[in-house]
Amino acid sequence: MMTISYEYEGALYLNLTNRCDCSCVFCLRANGHRGSIYADDLWLEHEPSRAEILSDVLRRDLPAYRELVFCGFGEPTYRIDDALWLVDELKGRGIALPPVRINTNGHGSLINGRDITPELAGRIDVLSISLNGATQERYCAVTRPKDGAAAWQAMLDFTRSAVAYVPQVRMTIVDKDLPEGELARCQALADSLGAQLHVRAYIAD
């Protein structure tokens, strides 16, 4: 049975897609892994339908989790319409949801061909956006997005816009092979966009 939802440190994570427009140097996918410390196998047999997602999630005691997180082995904003539909559906059933977070590379508007940030208002409580570099050159070298420099600009624009609609917006950087002064430069960039900066520990396996 494929893994649509999985638990980690008191939160419930939703794995809706394996599609991604990046090939980050630190990503477990790039190292041949099918899962991680979070779940053994996050490769999907197929992208689950809305009905499959809803059925899976309704088996859980949602109010008991500290957070509901859209994050799996792919970029969740490829399925932003389905993610937001799920939040609306669960709330419409009177379920008291914990805070809802999306872990994203910040390319959601680029991927969907429209500014999706206004649609997050009232639905998403936390956005965690992968920064991973204080300059376009560093970002592209680490993240390796298929759209290159356009993806860098799209991520910045997404972050700048999202802070108007989402209560907590943070940018993340993985603490692996960072050039001297990189954290300070990333902090300054996050500050300029109105976002927080969060340093993530590198997971080797």
Summarize the topology.
Blueprint: E1 5-8, E2 11-14, H1 50-58, E3 67-70, H2 80-92, E4 100-104, H3 108-112, E5 126-130, H4 136-143, H5 149-162, E6 168-174, H6 182-193, E7 196-200
Parallel strand pairs: 2-3, 3-4, 4-5, 5-6, 6-7
Antiparallel strand pairs: 1-2
Helix pairs in contact: 4-5
Explain this structure.
- Helices cover 30% and strands 17% of the residues.
- The protein is built from 6 helices and 7 strands.
- α3 links the parallel β4 and β5 (126-130).
- α4 crosses α5.
- The model has no long low-confidence stretch (mean pLDDT 91).
The gist of it:
This protein is of the alpha/beta class and 205 residues long. It has helices at 50-58, 80-92, 108-112, 136-143, 149-162, 182-193, and strands spanning 5-8, 11-14, 67-70, 100-104, 126-130, 168-174, 196-200.
Shape: globular
Percentage of residues in DSSP E strands: 15-25%
Q: Enumerate the spans where pLDDT stays under 50 for 5 or more consecutive residues.
A: none
Q: What's the helix count?
A: 6
Kindly state the mean pLDDT as a whole number? 91
- By DSSP, the count of extended strands is 7
What is the rounded Rg? 16 Å
Give the ordered list of helices and strands: EEHEHEHEHHEHE
How would you sum up the major sheet? 7 strands, mixed
Major sheet: order of its strands?
1-2-3-4-5-6-7
